[in-house]
Design brief:
Order of helices and strands: EHHHEHHEHEEHEEEHEHEHEHHEEEHH
Distance between the termini: 24 Å
Low-confidence stretches: none
CATH class of the largest domain: Alpha Beta
Largest sheet: 8 strands, mixed
CATH architecture of the largest domain: 3-Layer(aba) Sandwich
Number of strands: 14
CATH superfamily of the largest domain: Alkaline Phosphatase, subunit A
Number of domains: 2
Bound molecules: 1-O-phosphono-alpha-D-ribofuranose, manganese (II) ion
Helix content: 25-40%
Structural class: alpha/beta
CATH topology of the largest domain: Alkaline Phosphatase, subunit A
Mean pLDDT: 97
Length: about 400
C-alpha cells in the first residue's frame, strides 16, 4: 500500500491568542490553556505523550521529555476565525478579505427579497446564540410559521425552524435559496439549516443541521491529491467545508465518537491518499455554549480514542492532529477566538520530538501533505516535511 496522511481537525481546539487577537476582541483567549486552568488540569495522557504539553503550557499536560510526535503551533494568515477560513487555509487557500459578518443583521433589502423568494416572512435577523434564540422566538415561530434567521461573529446565515412547522425538505430548500442569494456580492461563508423540535420552554436542536458552504476560489490540496490518483476520504463536515472538492468518499457523522469510529474504518481500508476528519462537538456542543466541563470531557474522551487510531497507523502513514480556530468557553463570548492551533505530526517512520516552532500559516500543513504525497504544490505554505522525515 502507498502513503497515507490522516488529518484530524479538532474543531475549535485553539492553543492561545494570536498576536492580532485584540483586533478580533479575543485578547487572552486560549481554548486549551484556559479550559485546563478552569478545570484545575486536563487528563490527556496520550496527547501528552505525543507532545501536546510541549507546544504551550497546559495545566495537567506536562511537556514530555521524549514526545512521540513532532510538535508546534500554526498561525492563521487569512483574516477571520471561522471554520471555512481555517480549513481552507490548511488546504492552501489564503483569503485576502475576510468573509463578511453582519453584527446588525442582514440588510433590509436582502431580507425582503429573501422573504419574497421563500414565500414566508422571517423572525429575528440579529446576532444570537442558536440555543437561546429558539427558546425566545420558538413559540412565535410555531404560531406564525416564520423561520428564525440569525447570525453570529462568524460569516453565517443561520435558519432555525421547528421540524413539525417547516418540514426538513422545505428548510433545506429555503437554505438553498439563501445560499444562491448569498453567493454573489455578499459572499457569506455559510448558510446553516438549524432544525429543532420540542415544546415552548423546551425547544432542542436536532442532529439534522446542514451546512451550505461556498466554493473555494481555486484548487485545493484535496483536488491535487485526487488528481495524483489518490483517495480522499472525508469524515464529518469536511466534504461540506470544501464544497466536495477532491472528495472520493465521505461520511457525515453525528458527533465526535462517530467521527473517531469512521476514521478507524477508513484507516482499516487500503486506500492510499488522504483521510481528513473534522470533530465538531468541541466547537458546536461545548465551545459555543461556554460549557467548560463538557469541553474538557470531550477532550479527554478524544484522548481515550487516540490509542486505537495510533494502533492502526501503518508504516507509511503520517498522522496530523490540529484545529481550525479557537472557541474559548471560559470567556464571556460564545463565539470563536483568533488563536494559534496545535500541530502534532507523527508516523512510524518519521522523526519524533522535533520542535516545528510557530508556523506562519496553516497552509504549511497542507504544503507538507502535498509534499509527502507528491502532488502538485499549493500556492501557499512552506513544507516542513524535511524536518519530520527520516533518516536523521
Ligand atoms: O449559536 P449557534 O447556533 O450554535 O451558532 C454557532 O454555530 C455557528 C457555526 O458553527 C457559529 O457561527 C455560531 O453562530
Ligand atoms: Mn470550526
Ligand atoms: Mn463554530
Amino acid at each position: 500500500m502507498g502513503k497515507r496522511v490522516i488529518v484530524i481537525v479538532l474543531d475549535s481546539v485553539g492553543i492561545g491568542e494570536m498576536p492580532d487577537a485584540a483586533e478580533y476582541g479575543d485578547r487572552g483567549s486560549n481554548t486549551l490553556g484556559n479550559i485546563a486552568k478552569a478545570r484545575g488540569g486536563l487528563n490527556l495522557p496520550h496527547l501528552q505523550a505525543l507532545g501536546l504539553g510541549n507546544i504551550a503550557p497546559i495545566q495537567g499536560v506536562d511537556p514530555s521529555s521524549a514526545p512521540k510526535a513532532c510538535y508546534g503551533k500554526m498561525a492563521e494568515v487569512s483574516p477571520g476565525k471561522d471554520t471555512t477560513t481555517g480549513h481552507w487555509e490548511i488546504a492552501g487557500v489564503v483569503l485576502e478579505k475576510a468573509f463578511p459578518t453582519f453584527p446588525k443583521g442582514f440588510p433590509d433589502a436582502f431580507i425582503q427579497s429573501f422573504e419574497e423568494k421563500i414565500g414566508r416572512q422571517i423572525l429575528g435577523n440579529e446576532v444570537a446564540s442558536g440555543t437561546e434564540i429558539i427558546q425566545r422566538l420558538g413559540e412565535e415561530h410555531v404560531k406564525t410559521g416564520r423561520p428564525i434567521v440569525y447570525t453570529s461573529a462568524d460569516s453565517v446565515f443561520q435558519i432555525a425552524a421547528h421540524e413539525e412547522v417547516i418540514p426538513l425538505p422545505e428548510l433545506m430548500q429555503i437554505c438553498g435559496i439563501a445560499r444562491e442569494m448569498l453567493d454573489g456580492d455578499l459572499r457569506v461563508g455559510r448558510v446553516i439549516a438549524r432544525p429543532f423540535l420540542g415544546e415552548p420552554g423546551n425547544y432542542y436542536r436536532t442532529t439534522n443541521r446542514h451546512d451550505f458552504a461556498i466554493e473555494p476560489p481555486h484548487k485545493i490540496l484535496l483536488d491535487y491529491v485526487q488528481e495524483a490518483g489518490l483517495g480522499v476520504m472525508a469524515v464529518g463536515k469536511i466534504k461540506d467545508i470544501y464544497y466536495g472538492h477532491g472528495v472520493t468518499e465521505f461520511v457525515l457523522t453525528k458527533g465526535n465518537q462517530e467521527g473517531a469510529d469512521k476514521t478507524l474504518t477508513y484507516l482499516e481500508q487500503d486506500m492510499p491518499g488522504l483521510i481528513m476528519t473534522n470533530l465538531v462537538d468541541f466547537d458546536m456542543v461545548y465551545g459555543h455554549r461556554n460549557n467548560v466541563e463538557g469541553y474538557a470531557q470531550a477532550l479527554e474522551e478524544f484522548d481515550v480514542r487516540l490509542p486505537e487510531i495510533l494502533a492502526r497507523l501503518r508504516e507509511e502513514d503520517l498522522l496530523v492532529i490540529t484545529a481550525d480556530h479557537g472557541c474559548d468557553p471560559t470567556t464571556p463570548s460564545t463565539d470563536h477566538s483568533r488563536e494559534y492551533v496545535p500541530l502534532l505530526v507523527m508516523g512510524n517512520t518519521l522523526r519524533s520530538g522535533v520542535d516545528l516552532g510557530i508556523r506562519t500559516s496553516f497552509a504549511d500543513l497542507g504544503q507538507t501533505v502535498a509534499d509527502y504525497l507528491e502532488t502538485t504544490s499549493l500556492p501557499h505554505g512552506q513544507s516542513f516535511l524535511a524536518e519530520v522525515f527520516q533518516p536523521k
